[in-house]
Amino acid sequence: MAAHSKLEILKVATKLGLTSFGGPVAHLGYFREEYVRKRGWLDERSYADLVALCQFLPGPASSKVGIGIGLMRGGLLGAVLAWIGFTLPSVIALVVFAYLLHGWDLQGAGWIHGLKLAAVAIVTQAVWGMGKSLTPDRSRATIAILTAIITLVWSTAFTQIAAIAAAGLVGLFLHKSTADTEQQQDTQQLPLSKGVGSVLLLLFIVLLLGLPFLRSLFPHMWGLAVFDSFYRAGALVFGGGHVVLPLLEQEVVPSGWMTPDQFLAGYGAVQAVPGPLFTFAAYLGTLIHGWLGALIATIAIFTPAFLLTLGALPFWNTLRRLPKVKQALWGINAAVVGILLAALYDPVWTSAVRTPGDFSLALLLFGALMFWKLPPWIVVVLAAAGGTLLGLLT
């Protein structure tokens, strides 16, 4: 891969890392706008397939999608650069929070609320665009609507997986007549073989089972203990995002690494920065053992995402070409739209839109994205300013 291509991957991912507010669902909207619509690095169907795969795997969904896109674009180094660019800005910000801003009450800040309203606009745009492409007929629209309802009524990460699996089965039955006639060419070539993928998946299991054993053998090695705790948190969380918070609290508070108040203060801080919520590990690691603790905790919590994504993609790239799998993806892609639709309501809408002023600002931001075609980073700045103004007026 040419040097300019490497720099392009890092540059684009860093821009996303600096501007992607609103959590994993909003990140998928940012990714789609940047990687699919603007740059054409992959098509809508390939993007939806990648999102569907990442929904099946534990860990941070948006980071896994970014890693996968980086791999497709630039090989292993591209995957690493895509992760670094998307993750590093928020890691630095949270380490600074831990050192300098600890104790500030950021949760009620008006500009943070404005960023949540930006997430409403971003997710709405993503649902709109993906819905038009992936649910263009009554059958797929029905799958999306039912998936959204099921996901909202039974709100668990495993419900999402079950809904995706059920939609795949529906696709096998409903899409038989056209599955074999669709011959869309897949232009995505992966530089990893199935053998390498198998090794990475095996390494994931070995670390998951072996780290607790090593920790018991060397109880005084704080670095090993930190890596084990954060690796397990990253490996066992389905759904990503806020789901990881209770697991992390069980790892860091009972062990005496920090107090509950310190933990909750960090949760307030993580709402103020862009990028993946899993970078909360950088804040916690800093409290445990300074910048070195932040480095270990951050690498540990994202390692499962790397191993699973890079390990599964070589098999996924082959499977998705098979007629039966294409039939299943017909329904799965519609289910992904439904999951995004459900997430648009909860937690995105329910945590942000509380007053007519909130709805008005969210509507303006949506118009800025959809119809006035403003860049997302400008919309984020406007959202922060608008949230601050709303805070002053109420």
From TrEMBL:
Q: Which UniProt keywords apply?
A: Cell membrane, Membrane, Transmembrane, Transmembrane helix
UniProt KW Membrane keyword: yes
One GO molecular function term of this record is: chromate transmembrane transporter activity
Q: What's a GO cellular component annotated to this UniProt protein? A: plasma membrane
Highest rank taxon of the organism: Bacteria
Topological category with respect to the lipid bilayer: Multi-pass membrane protein
Similarity remark = Belongs to the chromate ion transporter (CHR) (TC 2.A.51) family.
* Name used for this protein in its record: ChrA protein
